[in-house]
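Appendix B. Chain record.
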Amino acid sequence: MLAADDVGPESVIAAVEATGASTVYIHIDLDVLDPADLSGLGAPQPFGVRATVLIDTIRALLARFPLAGAGISAFAPASPDDAVEDLPTILRIIGALNS
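Structure tokens predicted for this chain:
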């Protein structure tokens, strides 16, 4: 397991390589993101992973390993307006999964 400060393309790729995996399933629990980047979190973690770091990490991981599947969970906006505010970040994450 990597701490939020340790998450990045190189560390995640190294961790996956160490398992011997040939493909990856990426599960993104949005609660790991820094609340400064996404407000609709059920259990926000202060000083979490920045959205840009997550997106860069996903892209690097998929450049190295084929994607077997993916899931995104824990989006819990307090209002429809909060959901609309967070939508660009979520779409960038989904876009990274399709890269």
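Further analysis of this model is presented in Appendix C.
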